[in-house]
Amino acid sequence: MITSRTILFVVLFVLLCFSGNSFSQNFAQSQKEVIAILGTGDMGDSFGPRLAVLGYKIVYGSRNPDSEKVVALVEKTGNGASAATNVMAARKADIVFLALPWEPIEQILKRVGDMEGKIIIDLTWPESEVGPDGYYQMIIKPSGAEVIQSWVPKAMVVKAFGTTGTNVIDDPDDAGGLVTIPIASDHRHGKEVTARIAAELGLDPVDAGPLRMARNIEAMMELYMVPHTQGRDTGWEFYFRRTNYWMCNEYTGGEEVDGSSTVSDADNLAEMPQTHGALKPCPQ
Questions:
Q1: Where would I find the H helices in 57-116?
Q2: What pLDDT shows up at residue 4?
Q3: Which residues in the chain belong to E strands, given as ranges?
Q4: pLDDT tens digit sequence for 205-217
Q5: Among 57-66, 203-212, 273-282, where is mean pLDDT lowest?
Q6: What is the rounded CA–CA span in Å between residue 41 and residue 99?
Q7: CATH code, residues 32-256
Q8: CA-closest candidate to residue 100, choices 157, 50, 53, 162
């Protein structure tokens, strides 16, 4: 005999089956971090809308958060986005994207106060000049990201996203294939969160090592500008093709490789999202 209680149970079961996936997605999105995007220029207005669609709560930082430009950007971003001063936006956030000119960054970060536990993703172009040959050269040493870490020693500074253009952030398919984002940080958690965001954006994150490797990433940023400086018709986007050739061989250049690593974080390497298929197995 079918009772009203049985019918109710069946109806609830069917509703759960159809809505469970949606509920899980909504719950996962509700757990995502608050991201402050300091700067509302080309990079800031590219990252914000895309991250908001992914479920992150966006707070734009601006000198003039009530300006028409910023109000329009907040409206375009939707999904509960808001705007505040740079300092207030950084205070509200779990993750801070630095999409600002170099000059005001030190003052802003030092005014924020305690930044312990916050992830600061540095995509800035450090202070630079045009060299005697007409090409850009950065004058901040050893790297902009390392200097930023010295200003906020309790934060987790990550160098990433400075090696690509806003067109790729807007639409990763614009480059015609995967675009690699090298990520450098002394903090595993910060590196993994940044890699997750990069993968969610349709990009190809790679572990570039500790924060001092930001020097190399910033050198890649200089390299990125070369075809633009030369006035060429085409530029480039970086893509790191995967290979296990050297890992499969016992000798490289006559020196034996025993498979062990001596780097300081060998036992605590960041896990990177899998954006490629499996590599071919080593020959037996």
A1: 68-77, 86-92, 105-112
A2: 53
A3: 34-38, 57-61, 82-84, 95-98, 119-122, 128-130, 136-138, 156-159, 180-185, 204-207, 251-252, 255-256
A4: 999 999 999 999 9
A5: 273-282
A6: 8
A7: 3.40.50.720
A8: 162
